[in-house]
Specification:
By secondary structure, the chain is mainly alpha-helical. Helix content is about 70%, strand content about 0%. It has 12 helices and no strands. Bound molecules: fe (ii) ion (2 copies).
């Protein structure tokens, strides 16, 4: 189990600029509520297993993101960026914890996520042998992936709308915060290394690793659940339909993906201000409803 919190080193690091706060990055309390969960929580088994595979990768992945930024943060003198780093660490720590809770809950005797943990742990050991520049470049590339997927989920909420309430809150919350902090690792990398060739190289490697590992984990989970996932015509049809949705996602994100390779690219060039305004409001309403301060008519 991996959980992270902002350490005393992080706090000490920002002490001289204690009055500087991140303008745009808010650390919200976790929105995942532990309720009874079925391993299929979307219409198609394919989509449920894909989201679960992504969730399985988050605790260790986000721990790694934080580490790669912490490795070099003492070289950052800009107080605003230091404040953003602290907020980034706070958000990623909460994400890791929430997805850890989800992973623990959905795991069962017939649905194994734990074997992925061992594989990720091995991969993390390998990544930690790389130079701080390469480690951070890997984080920058992965953060671009998470921001792209987050943007797609919020812009096309078809998928979110079919999730149970607690799962919808988890994914909306995570997506909003991924967009809020999408520039942080990038700005740290540019401030210290600004190496374009490495950034491009790492994106190529991460693309292959990210796509193949998620495809393999999803395939593995589908196979574990094959009696239900692949055993009847209706499920097969829903899986094919959601394969179409995934193809749409890949095609529509292609321009944002390719933009990353441009020399003058910056995450802020992808304007998601209106999207954020809408979904931040949605999160606030969800929080009020959960606290019982707002009645919602059916
Ligand atoms: Fe995250
Ligand atoms: Fe992130």
């Amino acid at each position: 189990m991996n959980t992270m919190t902002a350490s005393s080193t992080d706090i000490a690091m920002i002490a001289p600029q204690a009055r500087v706060k991140s303008d745009n990055i808010t650390i919200r309390r976790t929105k995942f509520k532990s309720l009874d969960l079925n391993k299929q929580y979307t219409k198609s088994a394919l989509m449920s297993h894909l989201l679960t595979a992504l969730s399985a990768s988050f605790p260790q992945g986000e721990h790694f993101f934080v580490e790669t930024v912490r490795n070099v943060r003492e070289q950052i003198s800009d107080p605003q960026l230091q404040a953003d780093i602290s907020a980034f660490i706070g958000q990623e720590s909460m994400h890791a914890r929430a997805h850890d809770q989800f992973n623990e809950q959905i795991q069962s005797n017939t649905y194994h996520l734990k074997k992925f943990d061992a594989l990720f742990a091995q991969e993390m050991i390998r990544l930690r042998t790389l130079s701080p520049r390469r480690q951070l470049a890997a984080t920058v590339a992965l953060e671009h992936f998470t921001a792209m997927i987050a943007g797609y989920l919020l812009k096309h909420p078809r998928l979110i709308q079919q999730l149970p309430e607690n799962m919808a809150s988890l994914w909306i919350w995570h997506a909003v915060e991924e967009i809020e902090h999408k520039h942080v690792a990038f700005d740290v990398y540019q401030s210290i290394f600004a190496n374009l060739a490495q950034r491009r190289r790492s994106m190529r490697t991460i693309t292959i690793g990210f796509l193949t590992s998620n495809a393999m984990m999803t395939g593995h989970l589908l196979w574990q659940d094959r009696k239900h996932s692949l055993g009847n015509i209706k499920q097969l049809w829903l899986n094919v339909r959601d394969l179409g949705l995934l193809t749409h996602m890949v095609l529509s994100l292609l321009p944002e993906y390719l933009a990353f390779y441009r020399e003058g690219f910056h995450p802020a060039q992808i304007d998601q201000t209106r999207l954020l305004t809408h979904w931040r409001r949605d999160l606030m309403v969800r929080a009020l409803v959960e606290d019982g301060n707002l009645a919602v008519s059916a």
